[in-house]
Amino acid sequence: MALAAEHHDLLDRFRLSGRNHPYLAFTLNSICDRDCAFCKPRCMPDYGHKDKTLSVPQYAQIARTAGSWGVRKAHCSGGEPTLRKDVLGVIGSLAQGLGDGAQIGMTSHGNFRKGLSVKDFAEAGLTYLNLSLHSLDPGRSTEIMGGGDPQVTLDAVREALALGLKVKINCVLMRSYVQDAFAVASLARSLPVAVRLIELQNIGPAKEMFDAEFIPEAEVRALLSDWFTGAGEVSRAGLGVRSPGRYLQPEGWAGSIGFISNSSCATCSDANRIKITPSGVARPCILHNRDIQLPPHVEAGTLDDAFAHLFTAMLERNGNPAWGGFHYVDYDLRWDRMERPQGAPVFLPVIGTGDGGGCAVRQATHGADQ
Asked: Using CB atoms within 10 A of its CB, is residue 211 exposed (0-12), middle (13-18) or buried (19+)?
């Protein structure tokens, strides 16, 4: 279906803004069969499905409309997305809807639901896989994640690479387990993977452990200075990564190491994620209240109007002084009914981290949009 003239004008404005083109970040569910120390989903008051989740045909229709707006990437996460019985149908509908050349990704702990394999996801249309791995030691991995087998996750890594999928490994940095994180990062010596070292965030269950366990990117870089001396930078485009951050490839390594530092030096000036919750609430920014319900637009055939709203909201972040281009915390977007900012300023704390490794760190006040 062709876009209306005003929608073409909006896309032209978006291109001229220089912003990264948006991608769709679907949270498929909120449930998980792990109990990670920094996440503990079952402790959340709104844990589980409280509203009807999107169906495979609804995902397909959203993807088709997104494709007409030039969107070529969709990412699925959870919870643990492989616990959804229709997860392969969801992946297939997104791949077909966005069309040839689309990037379809998924984040998982790698211990898939019985009967599922990496091959199944690749055949459904998956092109890249993000796997959570916080320690290679089974006992310490269980301490962190509350279960699972890191060897099974490593098997998934190797199978995905053999099938031609791009692979990223997500590892949360905690002071008590920093050597475990370095062991995970060292996988990139011999495997062509991007290991992402993720700063702990002062949100949710992690609040209780944050003061003791937070270790900033700048300190980690100093500890790994031998690795990074003379390291080459890998382009985010080459990795299929569109989020802020630098990826470095130590000399002689097959893979790379990157940082996701939402506590010490995050910037949202080029963020391009449109988050979509399990029930179909689309959120163009975690820090304003321009959420929009997609199912009524699916039913009415007015998804183009919804995407016009989303693209406009992302454009106007550039000119809104309340943003200033920075954010320091991430709202947990897995639950549809968690409280969202409604017309009141959101005061965000700054984490004191010295020089921040070259990142700008300052106090910020983020106001909810009108």
From this structure: exposed
